Amino acid sequence: MIGGGVTGLSTAFALARSGRRVRLFEASDRLGGAVQSETIEGGWLAEAGPNTLLLSDPKVRTLFDDLGLASELRTARPEAKHRYLVRNGKLWALPTSPGSFLSTGLFSARAKFGIVAELLKRPRTRTTDLSLAALIESHFGREIVDYALQPFVSGVFAGNPAKLSAKHSFPQLWEAEQQHGSLIRGQIASAKARKARGEPRGTIVSFPDGLATIPRRLADRLPAGTIECRAKIESLLTDGAWKLVWSRDGTTTTESFAAVITTVPAHALARLSVGPLGERPLAALDAIEYPPVASLFLGYRRDQVAHPLDGFGLLIPALERRALLGVLFSSSLFAGRAPDGHVAITVMMGGASSPDRAQLDTTAALELAKRELASLLGVTGEPSIVRHHRWPRAIPQYNLGYERFLDAIARTEANHPGLFVGGHIRDGISLSQCLTSGMRLAERASNHALRAS
Ligand SMILES: Cc1cc2nc3c(=O)[nH]c(=O)nc-3n(C[C@H](O)[C@H](O)[C@H](O)COP(=O)(O)OP(=O)(O)OC[C@H]3O[C@@H](n4cnc5c(N)ncnc54)[C@H](O)[C@@H]3O)c2cc1C
What pLDDT is attached to residue 212? Predict the structure, then answer.
């Protein structure tokens, strides 16, 4: 196993549980990858990376049961279903029902008509991929792209919907169009199918100690001696069995394995040397776009914030030309994020639309955030808590043409039996998708070992 993020740990847990001997190599000195929760003295809890997990896949529920985490799950407070959106400098509550959609002043009558008319779309099989923006525009019109899709995509991918591939970034929409025509009818049909299977609705969750509970618990359940941190993979060699060469503090070690699984980001895969001549079969993956993102966790006294913070947070369309990607009302989402009489707000900046802002130092980022929060939420004065985290390569963009990367991965696996590649570059970027990616990788590697034995 190479990589100690949630994908790698989920793979290792599934393999160990099925009785396989497993070793996990993590280059840094900590596990969890992008998942980093910090308990701060005085009753604060900050997330540097992901803040929420959308729990909808039954396999993830089962994993949490197996890890004894079900009773520790915390569902987002009911008011988290409200989201705000900025339009013309003003905050609007996003409609949450057909009635509130028809009455909102957020969208024009034309945009509302476009949504109703979308229900009449016929199924359509496309032969070529198109951008997510083009797909949504062809169904709902431009206003919905600018004031619904774009800010939503900024929140999920920190990306640009005009570049993201409809087929790869949101495959459920691509399939809904083929099967149902209307994307709305597709969503209704999949909700009905889920109900018929007896599965509950997806819920937004975390844990009292934050999302880092997941990698911590996965690691705790691995047999002693499984994990090597600060272990840099030098190369992979094969002569029937796989030989993994890794180093720490100048000392190099070689270990043999029946299979090697990697869950590392694209730039690390691109540098991975496989074979005696040092070939780099995944070098092409270096071209995958990974925009930088910075998160700023800010703690304030309640009386410093005029807005009630009664929701999930704030989506900010690029057309509004604000300095932020979005804002999460962290202490409204989950209990225990701020002490009594205080609130916690998490600001995201950077992304594909404004990568430079993700590189600002803490003083400059804080000045920018304070200016924007003052005008959007009526925040005054200095925050009592500041945690700034910069992610130089945050989230891989499944842009148009992403097949060439997926093809390179599939070709490499076919040319090197016993090598398995997964994680957020291949199987979806959400935490839930990374956890299931890990389970699938474990199954594929186990089947390979069975065939080989
Ligand atoms: C700022 C931010 C916010 C996000 N918000 C959300 C959210 O709210 N909800 C959600 O569902 N998802 C969110 N995501 C996405 C999600 O967190 C990630 O897609 C997911 O955590 C990726 O997990 P992973 O294990 O596949 O990869 P990673 O977390 O990147 O882990 C890969 C690991 O491999 C290690 N590694 C790299 N190279 C080597 C090497 N050569 N040898 C050994 N180890 C190596 C790295 O150190 C790292 O620990 C967010 C991501 C970011 C960055």
Answer: 98
Is the domain of 352 the same as that of 418?
no
Nearest 5°: phi and psi at 64? Answer: -65, -35
Give the pLDDT confidence of 60-114 residue by residue, as tens digits. Answer: 999 999 999 999 999 999 888 889 999 999 999 999 888 888 899 999 999 999 8
Mean pLDDT of the chain: 94
Residue nearest to atom 40 of ligand 1 (CA): 27
- Please classify residue 172 by burial: count the beta carbons closer than 10 Å to its beta carbon, then call 0-12 exposed, 13-18 middle and 19+ buried: exposed
User: Is the Cβ atom of 263 under 6 angstroms away from ligand 1?
Assistant: yes
What is d(CA 329, CA 84) in angstroms, rounded to the nearest whole number?
Answer: 11
Does position 160 have pLDDT exceeding 90, yes or no? Answer: yes
CA 258 / ligand 1 centre spacing (Å):
26
Full domain range(s) for residue 270: 6-36+58-64+210-288+399-452
23: tokens are 């070793």
| Residue 351's CATH number | 3.90.660.20
Question: How far is C-alpha 360 from the chain's CA centre?
Answer: 22
Q: Is residue 215 part of a domain?
A: yes
The reported pLDDT for the residue numbered 102 is 87
Pocket flag, ligand 1, residue 157 (CB < 6 Å): no
pLDDT at 79: 83
CB 6 less than 6 A from any atom of ligand 1: yes
- Nearest atom within ligand 1 for CA of residue 30: 49
Same domain, 328 and 275: no
State whether the beta carbon of 354 lies less than 6 angstroms from ligand 1.
no
Please indicate whether residue 37, judged by its CB atom, sits closer than 6 Å to ligand 1. no
Cβ–ligand 1 contact at 326 (below 6 Å): no
In this structure, is residue 98 part of a structural domain?
A: no
pLDDT digits (tens, 9 = 90+) for 188-211: 999 999 999 988 889 999 999 999
Task: Give the list of residues 6+ apart from residue 330 with CB closer than 8 angstroms, or none.
Answer: 46, 47, 51, 297, 337, 338, 344, 345, 346
pTM score:
0.95
Specify the number of domains making up the chain. 3
CATH number at residue 146: 1.10.3110.10
In a domain, 303, yes or no: yes
- State whether 365 and 303 are in the same domain: yes
Residue 121 pLDDT grade (very low, low, confident, very high; cuts 50, 70, 90): confident
Examine residue 17 and state whether it is found in any structural domain, yes or no.
Answer: yes
Which residues have CB under 8 Å from 138's CB, separation 6+?
A: none
Ligand 1 pocket: which of 7, 233, 426 to mutate (most atoms within 8 A of CB)? 7
